[in-house]
Design brief:
Rossmann fold, 17 helices, 410 residues, 13 strands, 5-stranded mixed β-sheet, 6-stranded mixed β-sheet, Structural Genomics Hypothetical 15.5 Kd Protein In mrcA-pckA Intergenic Region, Chain A, Tyrosyl-Transfer RNA Synthetase, alpha/beta
Length: 410
């Protein structure tokens, strides 16, 4: 444990910051006091199913809370659900999720291990995989385990109840997911489990199962689901409203500057370590005219970008943003891309893909049709447009608001 920790009240203020559900706050305080008295850390568990390779700021809300526990000297377990990932979390799903292969799970898990250390201390983080104990359970042990949970309890889940009422299929293996996640808490003897608000049911099943098996029930803490850049839907890569934790500094900074004035307070609370009183002070300063909302938004973008990169990268990203978006100028440093020359003009669609400015021909055509491509400062919308590709020709390309490249044919 860390020497000279803050008083319990200060610890509680930090740990409860931004939380929605806490079951129960008095239990958390009691356990913190016991841990301090006995000079031992609490075990704080968070499970992530590696269903996709990228983490974004929505995931980082929970990871940041893990960091708060870590800063107070507690044992944080980043649990990769390599077993449960092959079941697929049914939370919020109107249909059975496709099951991932072991190869997909393993590949995604590797990317998680790299990304979480942008916030967590790698020396103080335990990474574990739940196949270690779930895969070792015998058929008899699974039967005994599921005997501790009733079907009625499972059907209390809102999404299961709605699917049943609508006559939609619920596969039997989906009912095992909350049980498997609950057993993770048993195997780790978790003191605390963190998750998004959509995970409350699963977390409470873990608390219930621990009590039935004679263990102190874990404290359950949920964090809000972060709205994406559109301010409406939950942050999601599929919706395109996300900020990935591995976005380049300029990309991250630019995306954060697109957040609305109203939504930025939510990001200050959930995506930074500012105390609630500090966020309120900023809001008050804006309300009474002491600070301009844009200045506060620049500060937000700097703070978050520095958190995932560093202060110098954040400063460079800000300078880039001011040059490109406020002064409407081309940044000083633009990557050069050299492509094979052609005696005949090449389709712009093909050039964008060759220059890695678009992942596919279809995406390149979409960008053109939506006005997201500029050549020499002029917007090009024609998906059949061509580009001079003779040796020595060069073109300044801009895709979206933040990506530039000098394309030279040789």
């Amino acid at each position: 444990m860390v020497e000279g920790r803050p008083a319990i009240r200060e610890q509680m203020d930090l740990l409860l910051k931004g939380c929605v559900d806490v079951v129960r706050p008095e239990d958390l305080e009691t356990r913190l006091l016991a841990a301090q008295r006995e000079k031992r850390p609490l075990t704080v568990k968070v499970g992530f199913d590696p269903s996709a390779p990228d983490l974004h700021l929505g995931h980082a809300v929970v990871i940041r809370k893990m960091r708060h526990f870590q800063q107070l000297g507690h044992r944080v377990v980043f649990l990769i659900g390599d077993f449960t990932g092959m079941i697929g979390d049914p939370t919020g799903k109107k249909a059975t999720r496709p099951q991932l292969t072991r190869e997909q799970v393993a590949a995604n898990a590797e990317t998680y291990k790299r990304q979480i250390f942008k916030l967590l201390d790698p020396r103080a983080t335990v990474i574990d995989f739940n196949a270690r104990w779930l895969g070792a359970l015998t058929s008899e042990e699974w039967i005994r385990l599921t005997a501790r949970v009733t079907l009625a309890q499972m059907l209390e889940r809102d999404d299961f109840a709605k699917r049943l009422a609508a006559g939609e299929a619920i596969s039997l293996h989906e009912l095992l997911y909350p049980v498997a996640q609950a057993y993770d808490s048993v195997a780790l003897k978790a003191d605390v489990e963190l998750g998004g608000t959509d995970q409350l049911f699963n977390l409470l099943v873990g608390r219930d199962l621990m009590g039935k098996l004679g263990l102190p029930p874990q404290i359950v803490m949920t964090l809000p689901l972060l709205e994406g850049l559109d301010g409406v839907e939950k942050m999601s890569k599929s919706l395109g409203n996300y900020v990935a934790v591995e976005d380049a500094p300029e990309e991250m900074f630019g995306k954060l500057m697109s957040v609305s004035d109203a939504l930025m307070w939510r990001y200050w609370t959930l995506c930074t370590d500012l105390a609630p009183a500090q966020v309120e002070a900023l809001k008050k300063a804006v309300a009474n005219g002491e600070r301009h909302p844009m200045d506060v938004k620049f500060e937000l973008a700097r703070t978050i970008t520095a958190d995932f990169h560093d202060a110098s990268a954040a400063a460079a990203a800000e300078a880039h943003f001011r040059t490109v978006h406020q002064k409407r100028e081309v940044p000083d440093e633009v990557a050069e891309v050299v492509l094979p020359a052609s005696p005949e003009p090449l389709p712009v669609v093909k050039v964008l893909v060759m220059a890695a400015l678009a992942p596919s021909n279809a995406e390149a055509r979409r960008l053109l049709q939506q006005g997201g491509v500029k050549l020499a400062g002029e917007t090009v919308r024609d998906p059949f447009a061509t580009l001079d590709a003779r040796a020595g020709s060069a073109h300044l390309a801009q895709v979206g608001k933040r990506r530039f490249a000098r394309i030279r044919f040789s």
